[in-house]
Amino acid sequence: MSTSPVPVNLSDKLAQFSELWSQKKVAELNDYEVKLAKLKGEFVWHSHEGTDELFLVISGRLTIQLRDGDVVLEPGELFVVPRGVEHCPVADEETAILLFEPAGTINTGDAGGPMTRAAENFG
Residue limits of the Cupin type-2 domain (predicted)? Predict the structure, then answer.
């Protein structure tokens, strides 16, 4: 017995959690994960030596601090942080984002520390 395909409703998924800086995996594409997260405050400076990282703002406003200047994202805007580029996400208000990155990517990259968390399956 097969199940029929079901689209992922991002608004519904976002309404199901309130934890900040906790990535929720909502889909997989080849060797990549599509993740949702809610952010508020400042994360940690880090880089991902082996992969680029895509940030898409769904609601709120996200500043991605880079060593050579900040990138500010409004809802509907995305930015790709190139592999190896040190960055620090900051959200002055609660912000919902979609991340697209290879499966198993550590959220704190090379920095580690207390904010390191594995993505939770949320599909």
Answer: 41-96
